[in-house]
Amino acid sequence: MRIRPGTRATKADVRTAARADTAGESPAAPRGTGARTATILGLAMLCIEGYDLFILGAVGPSLLAHPGWDVTRSTLGLLGSLTALGMPIGSVAAGWAGDLYGRRLPMVLSLAWLSLWMLLSAVAGSLGFFTLTRFATGIGLGALIPLVTAYVSESATPARRNLQVGTALTGLAVGGIITGVLGRALLPSADFHTLFLFGVFPLVLVPVVWRLVPATAPSTARETGAREAEEQVAGERVAGEREAASANRLADILTARHRRATLLFWAATFSGLVLVYGAGTWLPTLMVRTGYDLGSSLEFSIAFNAGAVLGTLAATRMADHGHLKAATVASFVLAALAMIALSTPQPRPVLLLASAIAGLGALGTQNLVNIAVAHYYPPHLRGTGLGFSLGVGRIGAVVGPSYLGAVTVLFTWPKAGFYAFVVPALLGAGLAALFKGPERGAGT
């Protein structure tokens, strides 16, 4: 149902319009029919981020042995942190631009940017230039998660929103699996630069995104329509409110109504990304340090990501049944327990299982936090909420690799690196236990 311009809408008209839009009557906001396409496209885009997230860990042992570059464990941690340092720039800018201009254009620019800098990483001839390419790549990577999460959430079938968003977010882990498989096949016999050549894949998705992703967000259009109708009832001016909303989106998510949830999301994302980027950079190296060869350590990385895929799908099914907070808390706790198990001598199958559980507890848990953020905010603030949550939380991505690097340098005990993961995991569990439910109207 549409409210005709120039007429006054009653509250009953607003409710009727909202029901019609949710039922799929609004041609600007199709439901269900585009959900599968959005989920698959989102998964493909986040495979790129996952591939890059774990590539530094996969090539880490080769970098340490690379002649002429003099890479140390501290340098490896610094490379991971510098990659993450560019991500808040991309997250905040893309979240804001996506809410203001729609998801399509920022997505296309991010994919093109990623292809350029991954290609330059593949041809980098010095450690200094390689470091620069990693920082620049991080800017593009930071943009993808808030854009993709918002896009899939807005296209999802309401009853399966958590599952569909979670499925798209498993692209991070699928990309990590691809990294592990390629690293297992090519390293150490091939030069580590070879793995970065696969980073040109984002260019293939550019025309697909341009064709399939709408220029404006459907849910944002629905929200705007409902808000316009309510403004007619209250006698408010639509243009004035839109102008204020565009200028004050950060202020909106920090008002008394949203402040507690916003700060909790930021802190939980920080904890989650310490785990994700610490593991992405260091897990294979820690396993090599424990006594495994590079091929075996990459198998643990593959198990880590496979666990993240399966665990995220299972946890999002729980979330669709109203248990998102419980699933998030449990996953953080599992991350702590799995890292302790990995530090102990166990049969190989047990260690592979522990690595898979660690994947759920680290990468899978961060997926759940992203879903909680997308679920909480109303559509016109969703991209901004996700962008700032990931932007501020990316400090954890910056801290994580260097934190693990410092622990491995300061403590010669091989188990120290694994125990270093326990602190952010337990902190994240405590923060997730304080999460609020969705903001009223956020599910549209």
Radius of gyration: 22 Å
| DSSP, total strands | 0
User: Mean pLDDT score, rounded?
Assistant: 77
Pick out the low-confidence regions. Answer: 1-33, 218-247
Q: Which secondary-structure class do the elements indicate?
A: mainly alpha
Q: What fraction of the residues are assigned to beta strands by DSSP?
A: under 5%
Q: Could you give a short account of the major beta sheet? A: none
The number of helical segments is: 20
CA(first)-CA(last) distance: 16 Å
Q: N-to-C SSE series?
A: HHHHHHHHHHHHHHHHHHHH
- The helical percent reads over 70%
Q: Write down the overall geometry.
A: globular
Detailed description of the structure:
With 444 residues, the chain is an all-alpha fold. 78% of the residues lie in helices and 0% in strands. It is built from 20 helices and no strands. The protein has helices at 11-22, 35-64, 73-85, 87-101, 104-122, 127-155, 161-169, 171-186, 193-197, 202-212, 218-234, 238-247, 249-253, 259-290, 294-320, 324-342, 348-376, 379-410, 416-420, 422-432. Helix 2 (35-64) packs antiparallel against helix 6. The longest helix is centred in the middle third of the chain and has 32 residues, at 259-290. It is globular. The protein starts with 10 loop residues before the first helix and ends in a 12-residue tail after the last helix. Mean pLDDT is 77; it is low at 1-33 and 218-247.
